[in-house]
Amino acid sequence: MFNKNKLYLIPISLLATMSLTSYANDEEKIKNFIKEFQENPSVVLDKIPEKIKISENVNKISRFSEKEITSKDFIEKKDQVRSEIISKQLANSENSLVIPYSDYPAYEDPRSFVDYPQNFINNIHIIDTKNITQAQLPFTPWSDSYWPLYQGSITYRYADPNVPRSSNIKDFDNYVLKQRPASSLIAENRIDMLSPAEKYDLLMGDKNFSLTNSVLSGIRGRNPEGWEGICHGWAPVSYMYKRPTRSVTVQNTEGVQITFRPSDIKALNSLLWANLNVNTKFSGQRCNDKNPPKDANGRIVSQDCFDSNPAAFHLALVNQIGINKRSFIFDASFDYTVWNQPILGYKYVYYNVLTGQVSNKAESVMIKNTDYTTDAFAQYRSGKSAYIVGVKASIDYMVETSPSKANSDSPSQDGISRVEYYYDLEITQDGTITGGEWYQNAHPDFMWTPVAGQDVSSRTVPKTGLNYGAEFAYHNFWWNNNPRSPMKEWLPYSARAAQAYSVPLENVVHNLNAWSAYPVVNNQAPENCAQQPCIPKVYSWYRN
């Protein structure tokens, strides 16, 4: 029987055989793809890339209805969320129909997108010396619910067996505020059945349940659709913050014990990042055209809907994931299954675009531009490059899961999927990657990530300059002792943040996340640390 705690040494000869088998499988698949593409490029271009379930926790239920998928209305829905992430600074109506060429434009320069641009490499031969044809983050971003608005977002009582089974926000609104208000559950000592928002309000001693009411009032009357939620908050915070790994029990000023499960803490994190501003970098444009213009081969010729250029995407992969070991988020306008997904890792092989021969070194299989006589994209080549090489890239990415009543969380509970993309790269005489072409229209066309070192804040609690008082304690992560609880002086600020931004106080959530991210050692829970402040000196919520 295999022992997971024992180190098994695999003979080099066996590893070589495994590698050759993998290459053989890749080569056969690529040759079939080339054949199909040459026979009917428009059909191949319009195929939705296959998704492979890597973990058993992947939710197969689409966020879009069959009607939204068949009508392609999902493209416009996705663009609505994208517009919240960025303000469209480039590509207006005058240039949206300009036929794009294969080299990436200056505004899409991946050097300015990735963290630590001083480490950026865009020469394919230098990249190949780094042995990063496959790479994975040293940690796993955590999965979470997208907290659909029709269920009340983070006011949803996922642990309540009597919660309405409905897609109408009115049913949840009525249940939470009238039929079964939080006060009745508290009186019955059923605090574990409260929603993440209600638990936070209870922790702060907020009798008006300001956060709960603010979240619901922002949804009430909107008749939200099934796709609406806070995935744009979950996606970045899943890798910017450490994973909440265990439940944390704290008290409010009245001595009421409240247990925050990992799902509760994740929900509060996601809401913070969905509703507060953060300095963000992006690459790509907005696309809300359900039927963008195409050429005779089926290639999209709208610059907005062609982005991101495959060279920009490839260089973001190898530099951000492979070299910097930091994630980023990608979206594909024409793929209803890929939407604001954090990337976990990748693996790619190069291939000869004529023969399908594969290699982990571009030099072995790239061909001269002039030799690519069957090039369906010849009219778009910029002329700057001398060589072309094909790439088959497998991308592993995080997907949403349902909230859980579990008291612990680990990567084994995450949802992970894999998608394969085919594209080519254009290479100059000296090896610089200048551009490329997608062989699938449902490709990544938008990438974004918060700037490294960024965090969110409502700036509700003022910094007084004093080294004492409730405000000083808040900014220095001091809680009350005996019991360990938030200070009652924070309540007005908490209510203000909830009413103005529909968010909790960030430092309260930071405390919960930092405590949850660390284990109990020698019966000493981080939330009961002997000497305050224990955050961020000992424990931290932020992933460096």
TrEMBL record:
Signal peptide bounds: 1-24
Keywords, sorted A to Z: Signal
Top-level lineage group: Bacteria
Pfam family, one: TGase_elicitor
InterPro entries on file: TGase_elicitor
A GO molecular function held by the record: aminoacyltransferase activity
Protein name stated in the entry: Uncharacterized protein
Biological classification of the source: Bacteria, Pseudomonadati, Bdellovibrionota, Oligoflexia, Silvanigrellales
